[in-house]
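Task: sequence design from structure.
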């Protein structure tokens, strides 16, 4: 299996529930144009991280997810997606952090 892909990863991104709502709102409101460090910025970064994961850009996704978690530490979707990205990269201890 190619380390950059995971057959069960993409469907999980779409089943994040609340995160899907956040992603849709971020897109509809143009959250990418918001000031850095705001909740709208965190939502835009979460959306971008999901896209980067689907494209196999794990480093970019993890950088965005780390920033999202710094801005919104209680973001369960960000923690879940970061754990999945680290698992796909083979960083199994990092999935628990």
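Answer:
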């Amino acid at each position: 299996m190619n380390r950059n892909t995971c057959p069960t990863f993409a469907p999980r991104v779409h089943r994040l529930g609340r995160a899907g709502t956040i992603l849709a709102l971020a897109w509809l409101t143009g959250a990418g144009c918001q000031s850095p460090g705001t909740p709208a910025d965190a939502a835009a970064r979460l959306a971008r991280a999901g896209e980067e994961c689907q494209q196999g850009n794990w480093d970019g996704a993890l950088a965005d997810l780390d920033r999202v978690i710094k801005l919104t530490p209680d973001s369960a979707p960000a923690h879940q997606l970061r754990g999945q990205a680290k698992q796909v990269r083979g960083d199994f201890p990092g999935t628990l952090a």
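The CA atoms of residues 58 and 85 lie 6 Å apart.
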